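Lab meeting prep.
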Amino acid sequence: MFFNWVKAHVGIKGNEMTDSLGEKAATEDIGEIIYDKIPRETIITEGKEKGLAKWQEQWAGSTKGAVSKLFFPNIKERMKTRIPISAEFTAMVTGHGLTRSYLHRFKFIPNSTCSCRIKEEQTVNHIILKCTKLENERRFQRNAIVRTGETWPPPFEQLTRKQIKTFMNFLRSIDFGAL
């Protein structure tokens, strides 16, 4: 391929055709538009974003999963967060299993009251924030969170995003059988 300077378009067949097509494109509003093609990656990204938006709408509108919504109110943020899975973690973020409240609901135990000094229903909230049997474990968690500049008590979603390691250490330190 080479380039050459041409004094004028007059009399050169290729240049005459180029001029003609340029004038036609500038004055007419017809013909195939070739610059509106969307890259495949853009279509995929937009599809994922629409799917996440729909999922978020359904998640927010659902009457199910109240405990999970405290820990994961935002689907997009949850999808970005890498979480370690364990029985304790799953029980806490779903409210299913390990708490007396859950076990009583399914008639595995006679009552849902925690055996600590507070004598209230043993829920996820009670275990994380109030249970007097877990004062030492909670103090370690609280101190670790406050050292990072966060406040105590944190919103539960912070426990599964910004404070996941601290939260996992807290959960591992609990002897659920003794509660």
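Slide two material, second protein:
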Amino acid sequence: MEKQLDQSQIDSMFAGVREEEACKQAAHAAVDQASVRERYNFSRAGQISNEQLQAISAVNDLFARNLTHNLGAWLRTRFDVALASAEQMMY
């Protein structure tokens, strides 16, 4: 069974799609305008925040503990690894 559409039904389908696209574009424009309100600080370009530094330190500390355990077990001797410091160096 073939379903045939007349021109008014086809036009209404295209109009519905156009309305959905217009609503999506308006929503994206509103989000874009709301999220670009923060000024960029060029003096801190390339620097990481304290929260990021804490996360990096936590990951490195976990790595050091796992390395201590696994390498010590593999070598069958006492082996210690500890995170000395975490800092950002400019180059």
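Talking points for slide two:
Residues 1-36 form one domain.
The longest helix spans residues 7-35.
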